[in-house]
Amino acid sequence: MHTLQPLRFPLAALLLAAGLAGAPASAAPPRHWQTAWISPSQPVWDDGFVLPLGMPRSLHDVTLRQALATSVGGERLRLRVSNEGGRTPLRLGRASIRIEQGPKSLPITFEGADSAVLPPGVALLSDPVALPTTAGQRLVVDLYLPQPVSLAGFHWDARDTTWLLRGDATGRPTQGDEPSTTTRAFLSELLVETALPTAAVVTIGDSITDGNGATPGRDQRWPDHLGRRLAPRGIAVLNAGISGNRLLHDGMGASALARFERDALRHPGVRAVIVLLGTNDIGWPGGPFAPHEPAAHVPQLTTALRQLVAQGHARGVRVIGATLPPFKDALKGTPLEGHFSPAKEAARQALNTWIRESAAFDAVVDMDAVLRDPQDPARLRAEFDSGDHLHPNDAGYRAMAAAVDLQALLGTRVREAVR
Fold first, then answer.
1. Are 109 and 81 in contact (CB under 8 A)?
2. Between the chain's N and C termini, which has fewer beta carbons within 10 Å?
3. 349 φ, ψ to 5°?
4. Average pLDDT, the chain
5. pLDDT at 26
6. What is the three-class DSSP state of 237?
7. What is the 3-state secondary structure (H, E, C) of 117-139?
8. Inter-residue contact 154 to 182 (CB < 8 Å)
């Protein structure tokens, strides 16, 4: 009689069949490209606008040296160079990147070449650069422009220094006496390669999100402070603020309705967007920025905010509403005075009430309550005022970031790292 013998399979095969074995030891873990920093592009305005551009309209035989801080780290990185809004082709001569205090610059290439040509309106992603980075690390990027090119990929308030160095200065030390500006150009995104799944929070807003009033070069904007809270969880914070931005109308950049997809929703792994918009819709009409524009109509603003929520939800993204900070006497005594009036304050209060009570958003962060003076709620608290009565200072921005409830932001239980 034949006796059945047990089948003898290798242990690894049995574990694999049972779903208990991991990937073969030789298989590399999956890698992801995470957007770690952005600089949203604005159209270049004409000479009749109330504010100067801050950079020449045409650049030639110059190296732009620009600093940025990555919100999360990675093993390799890539840069996105933008000729969006440009009227002429952008020829890149050489480009390089280094850690801000590092000794050596590494070349940036495009499809293996040291140079590239971008037609007007085009953006280009670089080849990967083997430069490991950590969250909050500051990087310096050099872009050499050998031929005349119109200003593009423009961001007016970088809260950092851009050096304009003569000739091809890629990788060479800054002398300190070269011309500089706080305007950014042609550099629009940093991506890092990581083993972590992509995860990001986007902050979209105007100059208060862009960081006007914060100390330049010190990464003191409220999204920077929020980024430091989320970095231990591997979540990038992308600052999509544009000074002068508005919900309904173009201003110093396309309206939020027009740019929401481009600047907020398209990035990999976006889990939530914090919306802090409406101050310029209310403050600009009748003042130097929009002298002939009629007063803002609050129901139109609420309709626009509902549309941002709908667009976010259609992509599976949480949308967090932020109340508008007070701005009594904003820009008073300057050529830009006219931002505040009792009627504009009434509109701000009405919009804030709707943000708090409408249940339109997945959550609300009450920036107004954080920043207002208890004795005069229409005014910024003195200790949070940068001096223009419109924009917070470093301490104010820190308080704004601290007011964001991470569990409400992410829709999950959150344990923060002890700092």
1. no
2. N
3. -60, -40
4. 92
5. 52
6. strand
7. EECCCCEEECCCECCCECCCCEE
8. no
Kind of pairing, strands 149-150 and 58-59?
antiparallel
Q: Phi, psi at residue 300, to the nearest 5°?
A: -65, -35
Instruction: Measure the CA angle with vertex 190, ends 187 and 196; round to 5°.
Output: 170
Kind of pairing between the strands at 270-276 and 149-150: unpaired
The set of long-range contacts for 169-178, using a CB threshold of 8 Å and a minimum separation of 24, is: 169/63, 169/65, 169/142, 169/144, 170/63, 170/93, 170/94, 170/95, 170/96, 170/105, 170/142, 170/143, 170/144, 171/96, 171/98, 171/105, 171/142, 174/65
Gap between the Cα atoms of 342 and 176, Å rounded:
47
Count of other CB atoms within 10 angstroms of residue 299: 10
What's the CA gap between 160 and 269, in Å, rounded? 27
Pair of tokens at residue 35: 């957007």
Model pTM score: 0.91
Closest to 64 measured CA to CA, from 24, 42, 96: 96
Q: Is 314 exposed, middle or buried (0-12, 13-18, 19+ CB in 10 A)?
A: exposed
| Residue 269 near residue 197 (C-beta atoms within 8 A) | yes
Determine what percent of the chain is predicted with pLDDT higher than 70: 92
The token pair that represents 311 in the structure block: 């667009």
Residues (pLDDT < 50) of the chain are 1-23, 417-419
Nearest CA among 268, 366, 352 for reference residue 317 = 268
Both structure tokens of 303:
């309709």
Q: Which residues of 104-129 are buried (b: 16+ CB within 10 A; e: fewer)?
A: ebbebbbeeeeebebeeeebbebebb
Query: How far are the Cα atoms of 78, 307, 327, 387 from residue 332, in angstroms, in the given order?
Result: 43, 34, 10, 10
The H or E element spanning position 279 is helix 279-283
Bridge pairing between strands 270-276 and 200-205: parallel
Query: What letter does residue 74 receive in the DSSP assignment?
Result: B
